Amino acid sequence: MQPRNMSMSGVVDLAAVKAAQEAKAKAEQARAERARAGDTGAVPPSGLVIDVDEAGFEHEVLQLSTEVPVVIDFQVPRAEPSAALSAVLERLAVEYNGRFVLARVDAEANQMLLQQFGVQGIPAVFAVVAGQALPLFQGAAPEEQIRQILDQLIQVGEERFGLTGIQVDASAAAERAPAEEEPAGPYDHLLQAAVEALDSGDFAGAVRAYRNVLSEDPANTEAKLGLAQAELLRRVSELDPAKVRSDAAERPKDVSAQLAAADLDLAGGHVEDAFGRIVDTVRQVFGEERDTARLRLLDLFEVVGPDDPRVVAARQALARVLF
């Protein structure tokens, strides 16, 4: 998915004169109070990246945004594009040394926040400046482009709202005690074998390993997700992309052709296209063919994650077709 970039010109509405003056006054007052108390307000580097949820959002983000721009990373850590973007943002938060704070939000566990911000897909990045929210970009983006957006955000925060950032105390980076190793779970060796099989391209072997776990623990979330991914990769590895696309275009009501094309769509990151293709197929066929298409769509939902907004939308579209 290509990033949908948001121009900083949209901040003009947020930076109405009254709001800007109030924000500047609050920021100056907070700095003055800390100075009188002998508190520099310095935070350790670890404080530049925080995890927030719906319960703590007001205290941890809205209040903090009166001192420093807060970048909100709506993420699904298990999804590779989301995890990759989060890693870049975390590194930049440390590099920018207090000029913004990164707040990570688990999109699956905080659906209300997604609705409040109008998030349409994951990953999505927003910002809160002096209590005011604005979108930055959606989807993956090159690091150079992310830096440009952050620089604009920081400039707006300083010029419009008097947010000069927070001081970072590098000496406060206390050495962390080594984390205690969690005891190995009963299926860890099978799950590890499945991961190794995936890494080596042995998709059939990965499918067998995940099924072995599910045969004894049907509710194992990691195995369910892994099996759905392994089965998708196995199917795609056996396809001729050019032929699949040609067959799908020539035979719009051929369930096998459309499901193969949907697999390619999803493997290529075109999630909405994959879901839409199968929903359209379900609409055009009946009986066993309809059930085959419906079940494949449910399998693909597992690959993306049941709480992903695109899955939620596709479920609704499927229900409208079926009922």
TrEMBL record:
Domain of life: Bacteria
Signal peptide, first to last residue: none
Residues of the Thioredoxin domain: 21-155
PANTHER family per UniProt: THIOREDOXIN, MITOCHONDRIAL
Name the record gives this protein: Tetratricopeptide repeat protein
Organism: Streptomyces evansiae
